[in-house]
Specification:
alpha/beta
Amino acid sequence: MKTPKKQRIEIVSVYQFVLTFLFMGLFFSLLFLFLFFTSFWFLSVLYLVWLFLDWDTPDRGGRRFEWVRNWKVWEHFRDYYPIKLVKTAELSPDKNYVLGSHPHGIMCAGSFCNFATESNGFSRQFPGIRPFLAGLAGLFRIPVYRDYLMSCGLCPVSRQSLDFVLSGPQRGQAVVILVGGANESLHGVPGEHCLTLLKRQGFVRLALRHGASLVPVYSFGENEIFTQASFGIGSWQRTLQAAFKKFTGFAPCIFWGRGLLFRWGLLPFPVPITTVVGCPIAVPYRPNPSQEEVNRYHKLYMEALEQMFEEHKESCGVSPSTHLTFI
């Protein structure tokens, strides 16, 4: 049983994650714009100079700080749901890996907790493996927010960035890609397991170019931490969401969780999240992979992901009659 103090600390830790996810970038962008018109204008100028000099850092492996990844707040964040990390196979530190993480959900809580922090001891469970959680490239152009993301070990989900991580002399590099992206977040409805994967082959091509093993990852419970308004394909609401996503890179989901003073709010529901890391799929080194090879390993990956889902779904609270849907 958790004490009232522990419960309050967990709520604060989760709120800081939610508010950071939603508003940190906007807050600092407006702050630096505001400072331009005050006597502190030099602060904005100094940061812009720093931003110019540091512009390429996100595409060159970023700038992680292990002390940030080991913040105590992440342990309280983990305990709120709680979030677990399940290892099903060894990952050799002599190889590189491309981890496909599913589903995207609203805020990728399971992926962030397990790969961008050490709250579940990723480095202890997978010694010698260095994870890089890949995020939307545009986020790494936002003042201060970019530095915060890099400090947790995030990098842009761009070819330049991912090629840099996987082409270095150091082995044991693992890029974690939320394959479904913003489109998949639109399907993050509780009880559904719908993945945007059928036409997503870029991560397979990336693995082939570097001879990096493919590893399926699934976070059971990710879609249950928020309730989302779902609109049918062809409706004007879905059309508007798709148009917004096309121009901004992310989808404007309408979601809500639990509130403290009111019935609804931004606090996620405390639903257990279990992130299962599957067995690696060996991939040959092909600097210029053919479409046939891409199709073959994409199919193998989908089959491995589906098999892993079936093996673990019941232990993670999913009905035996529920299956993955690929779109």
